[in-house]
Amino acid sequence: EALAANGASLVIVDYTAPSSLQPALQGIDVLICTFGVTALAVQAPLAEAAKLVGVQLSIPSEFGGNTAGKSEGPLAHKNAHLAQVQQIGIPWTVFYTGPFADWVWRLGFDIINGKVEVGGTGNGLVSWTSRSDIARYVAHTLTALTKEKLHNRVLKLEGQRISINGVLAAYQERTGKKLEVTYIPLEEVRERARDKGDVKAWLQLVWEEEGTYGAEGEMNVDWPEFGPQGVVNAILDSWP
């Protein structure tokens, strides 16, 4: 109802029935997918239907770290889907954003009550971007860039590059609140991450070892005036 009140058209579809997907995509120029990890598989029939009705650009549900070449874990599904889109022959754009700076702290971090669990040393650099900034970047690039600068490209954006320890220190300095931080040894984090259902451990491992996806000079180059918010501001805006 809130989306409809803001001008969105709501359409009920059956992802197992291509006959319901094609009419919903008729006349659409750009298909933007924002599915969560557990629903990534439904992108496949969407991409096929998009190709059939002439959608001009597919934006898969990446919106995270680098998925290129990944063959295991949640990122493998994203990598496989991009390969499928390429095979279908529909132009694509992928956005690398890093973890959501305004949301991911709700995943096992009890910042409000002053307790935080960190996997590993907490010193790995991470590229964080808030969801509102991601939305702004996507909207801007889709309307400001030419097809040549959009089609079949990976666009990298970043709100702030900072370690978890850096975020926690900045949060405490900004708010005056003391956080009780517990560090979990990296080998224990690896063991937990082997259980594919332990998303928290998997993320902790990613943040510790491969939290960025390019040099700082590669970020936000398609919109130099981007001006994203920092991580602490994102946390406070979404979790006062």
TrEMBL record:
Keyword Cell membrane in annotation: no
UniProt key word Cell division: no
Keyword annotations of the record: NADP, Oxidoreductase
Name of protein: NAD(P)-binding protein
One Gene Ontology MF term: oxidoreductase activity
PANTHER family for the chain: NMRA-LIKE DOMAIN-CONTAINING PROTEIN-RELATED, NMRA-LIKE FAMILY PROTEIN
A matching Pfam family: NmrA
Superkingdom of source: Eukaryota
Domain NmrA-like per the UniProt entry, residue ranges: 2-192
InterPro entries per the UniProt record, alphabetical: NAD(P)-bd_dom_sf, NmrA-like, NmrA/Isoflavone_reductase-like
